[in-house]
Amino acid sequence: MDLHNLNPSSLKSRFTTRFLRALTEINARKPIASSSSPREIFQRYRRIKDAADTSMAYSVRSRRTWSKATLWRLRTPSHRRRLASFGRRSSLNKTRTTTTASHRGAVVVQITSRGGGLGVQLEELRELVPGGEAMDLCNLLDETAHYIKCLTTQVQVMRTIANLYSLE
Amino acid sequence: MELNAGTAGTGSHETASERKEVAALESLQFTDEIRRLMLAPATDNASSFTALLELPAPQAVQLIHSPDSVKLTAVHAPTPNVDDFKGSFHFPFDSGLIERAARFSLFAGDGNINVNNKSNSLEPTSYNSTANLQKPVKSEPAETESYQALVSDPTVENRSIKRKDREKVKGSTKKNKTAAKDSSDDAEKLPYVHVRARRGQATDSHSLAERARREKINARMKLLQELVPGCSKISGTALVLDEIINHVQSLQRQVEFLSMRLAAVNPRIDVNLDSIFTADSGSLMNSNFSGMVMPMMWPEVQLNGNRQQYPQQSQFGAFQQPVWGREEVCNNYMTPENSLLSYDSSGNSASLHSNQLKMEL
């Protein structure tokens, strides 16, 4: 078993160390009781998932739009986020979306497809990739490629950790 | 003279045959001289059409530009090259045109363009070198054809070359549309893009910019196709995008599922980072993927409240029970190792081991 299998500054190792740290922190805060209700498990699941996304976005160091968007999404509370996103969307996406605000809190956004048959898929892709709403196609494809690469790393590491834990 | 008379006089029958031989020899010499005479005026008049047609192409080029250094018998063009050359080299018969074309290509290559630089280096060598003509042609057939286009910049084009000449040169690009692909690939790597106008396409700046943008997008789509497994066979942007979207969705679902699994499994926190780095993701998860539907249902069920706890538990329990059984056993081990890790969570395995040893002692 060789110790320095990986480049210590690669994406994988950065993510792994951060994620493990976060995991131990979560486990330290709330150790699993044997009779934990599904609700607790659900809360734990949410925390672990957020920790995974945050640690991955941190490892990328906000060089990318999607990592910035992920960190922002996990940091700002939801009510402030809704207001900010309304402002952002209406200012940036005027060509693409028509927003009809029904009342103050809720915003109904109708997304009109543009540019031939690709419109529907482009909108879907924008929804999937975090921070993808306000990007042109060229950059969006770039972000998607990097996002896919990081997601696969994340899945690989998490799977290995889960296997290790469940093999005991 | 006296000797001649003497020999002529001595034997008449002998001299008849001799005379025939002499006459034959003289005729041979005459033919050589005649041949030389025929070819000499041809070399002087470099631009004559008929003279050029008689010779193979490389020699003709040499004739045009360096009539002194011609060795007609010396250069043997290997046949396949000559065929390529003839097919591709749209031969301008006017030396003035050639000079203008050479000048123009030197003009156009002022920028930092790969293809244009290659064509620049190619043209002077092809015109000035005598014996090395086939080598540059052979090594870069695409470039010889692409320099025929000679259209890299619409402004330069309008400025320096006449319309008639440009179309004549451009006509050869009919055969060479594949060369444009090379230029577009090179264009991807450059700081600013030079796009070649193909035959029959608009050359205004808007369509050029659009074409550059489209080529950028196509290059990125190709990269994405390589990233996503099973996408390289599919043709057509819509289907490829569908595949990409499916892949991203499945990856996100896998992350959710794995975090659910981590939440459920009680972590035995003897974190051995070596084993994590060396152990690859095995196929253990594949059997459990049937449960992947759960993360999707799970948040919805939770939002509905605790009314549906029992069906939840039945679904979840089947998955959970082997894990929970292990949990109770492992609970005892958790606390001391927890404290260990709270000291040193940077994950240096050596220090961890040393701590464990100290605790045991």
From TrEMBL, chain A:
Highest taxon in the source lineage: Eukaryota
Cellular-component GO terms for this entry: nucleus
Organism classification: Eukaryota, Viridiplantae, Streptophyta, Embryophyta, Tracheophyta
MF terms in GO: protein dimerization activity; transcription cis-regulatory region binding
Transcription regulation is among the record's keywords: yes
This protein's name: IBH1-like N-terminal domain-containing protein
The UniProt record lists the keyword Cell inner membrane: no
Location relative to the cell: Nucleus
Keyword annotations from UniProtKB, A to Z: Nucleus, Transcription, Transcription regulation
IBH1-like N-terminal domain segment(s): 9-75
PANTHER family found in the cross-reference section: TRANSCRIPTION FACTOR IBH1, TRANSCRIPTION FACTOR IBH1-LIKE 1
Organism encoding this protein: Hibiscus syriacus
A biological-process GO annotation: regulation of DNA-templated transcription
Alphabetical list of InterPro entries matching this protein: bHLH_AtIBH1-like, HLH_DNA-bd_sf, IBH1-like, IBH1_N
From TrEMBL, chain B:
GO cellular component terms attached to this protein's record: nucleus
Superkingdom as given in the UniProt entry: Eukaryota
Alphabetized SUPFAM superfamilies for the sequence: HLH, helix-loop-helix DNA-binding domain (SSF47459)
Positions with biased composition (Basic and acidic residues): 179-188
CDD domains reported in the protein's UniProt record: bHLH_AtBPE_like (cd18919)
BHLH domain segment(s): 201-251
Key word DNA-binding present: yes
Sequence ranges of Polar residues compositional bias: 115-133
Sample GO molecular function, one term: DNA binding
A family per Pfam: HLH
InterPro entries attached to this UniProt entry: bHLH_dom (IPR011598), bHLH_ZIP_TF (IPR024097), HLH_DNA-bd_sf (IPR036638)
Principal place of residence: nucleus
Alphabetically ordered keywords of this record: DNA-binding, Nucleus, Transcription, Transcription regulation
Keyword DNA-binding: yes
Region annotation Disordered: where it falls in the sequence: 115-188
Subcellular localization(s) per the UniProt record: Nucleus
Listed name of the protein: Basic helix-loop-helix DNA-binding superfamily protein, putative isoform 2
